[in-house]
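Consider this pair:
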Amino acid sequence: QVRLVESGGDLVQAGGSLRLSCAASGIIFSIARMGWYRQAPGKQRELVADYTSGGFTNYADSVKGRFTISRDNAKNTVYLQMSSLKPEDTAVYYCNARRSRPQYDYWGQGTKVTVSS
């Protein structure tokens, strides 16, 4: 059974920092593309950052320079370090694990981040 469990969401003031974690089980973590997505109220889910098994990272323009994605394959965990948080970063943040061969696409339950102004 595949599980992605996010943690670290909280209420924080603008300008503050948070670190989100996503612990994965049931998959071969080291070969998965791991990503963080977010969904704000009334908006579509969007990619925040992802980290390929080959070590490449990709960020949404809105978070470049403020957020950093990292992964620890020994711990089957992916992290999202968020700094200089803005009210517009308020959303539920979801962890995603995907791979094309074999094909799979799994989601966590989400962790809520609220940034107050």
